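User: Structure with 1,3-dihydroxyacetonephosphate, tokens only please.
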Amino acid sequence: MDVNKLSETAKALVAPKKGILAADESSNTIKKRFDSINVESTESNRKSYREMLFQTEGISKFISGVILFDETIRQKSSDGESLVSILSKQGILPGIKVDSGAKPLSGTENETITEGLDGLRERLQEYYELGAKFTKWRAVINIGNEEPSDYAIKTNAHALARFAALSQEANLVPIVEPEVLMDGSHSIEKCYEVTNITLREVYYELYNQKVELEGTLLKPNMVIPGKDSNDSSNPSEIAKYTVKCLMDCVPASVPGIVFLSGGQSDDEATINLHHINVIAKKLQTPWELSFSYGRGLQSAPLKTWLGNQDNILLAQKAFHSRAKDTSAARNGSFL
Ligand code: 13P
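Assistant:
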């Protein structure tokens, strides 16, 4: 393992004004996204859609890396060029989602454990050879009356650290994603409490399993009230809670924190990120605070594309505009 190289890659992913596009939707998730625009989820439609995003002119000004799905890292464009090469030529780092999804956690009613550790060492080697520079693993923590259990937090944190250690062994920067879901009617204080406990457990496991933090990135949720809650916390309160939580839990040796958008509207994802960076600048936080958005970058281009090749330029314009705004927010200069 080359820790200096890992640290260089992690820093490049959170370079000034830049962040990550998460385009690693699993087959089920991309089908849901395509269903919403009445497009069939065929291999060729998935390729055309992602090729459209990756070929957007000027996008490397805002996007440092793209997280791919197993199918995408092997795909070639209509001109026969690999999608990985399209990204690399623009200086965009290709990454890969390596978990195989959140499955029911036995002994619980509705909690999950993320699977995918079996055979991971071999798969990582193959992804490295295919050009990947970084990896992602998403653990899901949900808030309910009785949830999350200590058991769900601990097993997921343990698996995240196993994934991170194996990724570093393969010279791939792990993006560690413990997502506390927005679903539910909980308050912002509850989200703060659960995110805090979860992150502490994750860093405890990363430390135990000898993960070099300078060669990692954290991908957390923002600290935000549940989707169905009456809590009317404003963006500046969301930003205060989020930065306080991260200051409490994330070691200074982590180079960057890249938020997920988690189902927030485009405006929310942008404005909250802006306020987070405004506070972070004042407090001189030790890490970069950037983005690794899926829906927050793709909703607009997806709705413009509609599966029609004639809409490519307009969809690329929509993607460019979302990436530009999110980059400004990541710099604390959107508003
Ligand atoms: P969202 O930004 O849509 O939450 O997706 C990010 C992601 O990669 C989830 O794993």
